[in-house]
Amino acid sequence: MKRRNFLKLLTFILGSTAVSSFAYPLIRFLAPPQTKATGERISIKKSDIPLGKGQEIVFGGTPAIVVNVQGMGYIALSRVCTHLGCLVEYNKETNRFICPCHAGTFSVEGHVISGPPPKPLARLPLNVQGDNIIIG
Amino acid sequence: MRQKIKERWEERVGLKEIIRTKLKEYKVPKGVNIFYTLGIVTLLAYMVQAVSGYFLLIYYIPHPDHAFKSVQDMMNVVPFGWLLRMVHIVVSNLMVVVIILHLLSIFIMLSYKKPRELTWVAGVCLLFVTLIFCLSGYLLPWSQRSLWATTIVTNIPTAFPVIGEYIANMLRGGENVSGITLSRFFALHIAFLPPIFLSIVGFHIFLVRRLGLSTPSVSKSAEGHADAHSFYPYFFLKQVFMIMVFFSVVFFMITFMPTLFTPEAANTPADPLKTPLHIKPEWYFLAPYQMLRIIPNKFFGISMQILLIAIFMLWPFLDTKEEKNILKRPLLIVMLIAALAIWVSLTIWGKRP
């Protein structure tokens, strides 16, 4: 390798290292710290959610809903639409979730029925213990 | 004494020399029309935004618990706060209109052709930086519209696998739009975007001065500007006229259409647990918003928009024909009319519930 080319390569490597050593801290600085709570549990009384009704909750910082569906029992779903993040609303007449932004429709189990959402609503772990519904 | 001060000032600064060489001896081609003045109108609109923005900063509190109230107080309590805020809102919208008209006129006159391709690219970049300005600005009042429009936009990167979620979280500072997002957008709006915008404007003006104004395709004047007018007073007066027209429109809208750009959702405090029904973005985002509604695949919808933006930005490099008179380019006319018709239709469609 000629001395000139070697010096070019060396300058490039040193320059890239210098840029990276500044870029990495900047990217880490902009990335949000991991603050998501783990092991969170929410308890709701069964009597608070009569048949055909839903109760909105916030689980792990995310808006969610627990619905009591005829023949299916209690279902806990994230209310965040999988299309572009708007919050879906439960319509008890149609027994569906509707997104007010881009008109995505989900079944009561969270499956996509129509509209642009690419995947179902996230389902949250739920247990019924005695008179209580435990989410988480 | 006064004369001596003037002479000494002139000796050191050379203002007369600058006016003579940069304004009086600088030539513009004959036949330049009012559409050529839209660049200076855009620059002036930006300056109005900067000055009104500095004043709004005195009362605005960038915190989710106080932002909405501080803006409402500005409108209702602070003397003439409403005026400064209305100027900021109306000029931001009209600035987008002026830039679109500027680009449209450049396109119709085919002034983007060699050697002015980069001038076009810089102009398109300015349009997008202005749109980012608008977007980051309308989160700041922390209203329902602010919160949900930002939620939609910051979710757009999630269409892309692997890195999409990471980019979205980086933009928001978390998984949802929150106080952290407000701080980020505030910093973007007042500290990061202005130098970016001014650098692109500087580059754009440098290219315009270096290459000169393009000759209108309908003019008989030669490209070399041999047959030309002085910039001052001929073109300068046209610019002053258009600036006056611009301000007339601004104050007409503030007086007679004060709620045009501030719908109900813009005057309702942000509620992170309730997306308002039929939430709509600003008029300039309605077409892409409607596109996302009608294209069933999120990845495809967003990729298509990025592709369209790339084609729009790099158009001078794609259109290689040398003909500079659009009347002799029927296919291009059809394409332009079709593109405009689609954009207008999507905008109107997007406005409907």
Describe the fold and architecture.
The complex is a heterodimer of chains A (136) and B (353). With 136 residues, chain A is an alpha+beta fold. Chain A has 1 helix and 10 strands, in the order αββββββββββ. In chain A, strands 5-6-7-8 form a 4-stranded antiparallel β-sheet, with no helix packed on it. In chain A, strands 1-10-9 form a 3-stranded antiparallel β-sheet, with no helix packed on it. The radius of gyration of chain A is 24 Å and the shape is elongated. With 353 residues, chain B is mainly alpha-helical. Chain B has one domain: Up-down Bundle (Cytochrome Bc1 Complex, Chain C), CATH 1.20.810. Helices cover 66% and strands 2% of the residues of chain B. Chain B has a two-stranded antiparallel ribbon with strand order 1-2. In chain B, helix 3 (38-59) packs antiparallel against helix 5 (81-108), helix 3 (38-59) crosses helix 10 (231-256) and helix 6 (117-137) runs antiparallel to helix 9.
Write the layout of secondary structure elements.
The complex is a heterodimer of chains A (136) and B (353).
Chain A: H1 3-30, E1 42-45, E2 54-59, E3 62-69, E4 73-78, E5 89-91, E6 96-98, E7 105-107, E8 112-114, E9 126-129, E10 132-135
Antiparallel strand pairs in A: 1-10, 2-3, 3-4, 5-6, 6-7, 7-8, 9-10
Chain B: H1 2-13, H2 15-24, E1 27-29, H3 38-59, H4 67-76, H5 81-108, H6 117-137, H7 144-155, H8 164-172, H9 179-211, E2 228-230, H10 231-256, H11 286-294, H12 298-313, H13 315-318, H14 330-351
Antiparallel strand pairs in B: 1-2
Helix pairs in contact in B: 3-5, 3-10, 4-5, 5-6, 5-10, 6-9, 11-14
**In oligomeric terms, what are we looking at?**
heterodimer
Number of strands of chain A: 10
Supply the CATH class of chain B.
Mainly Alpha
Helix content of chain A: 10-25%
| Percentage of β-strand residues of chain B | under 5%
CATH topology of the largest domain in chain A: Rieske Iron-sulfur Protein
Enter the CATH topology name of chain B: Cytochrome Bc1 Complex, Chain C
Q: Nearest-angstrom radius of gyration of chain A?
A: 24 Å
Q: Please state how the strands of the largest beta sheet of chain A are arranged side by side.
A: 5-6-7-8
Strand order, sheet with most strands of chain B: 1-2
Broad shape of chain B: globular
> Which whole number gives the mean pLDDT of chain B?
91
The structural class of chain B is: mainly alpha
Category by helix and strand content of chain A: alpha+beta
- How many domains of chain A? The number is 2
Rounded to an integer in angstroms, the radius of gyration calculated over CA atoms of chain B is 23 Å
* Helical stretch tally of chain B: 14
Can you write the helix and strand succession of chain A as a string? Answer: HEEEEEEEEEE
Q: What is the terminal-to-terminal distance of chain B?
A: 70 Å
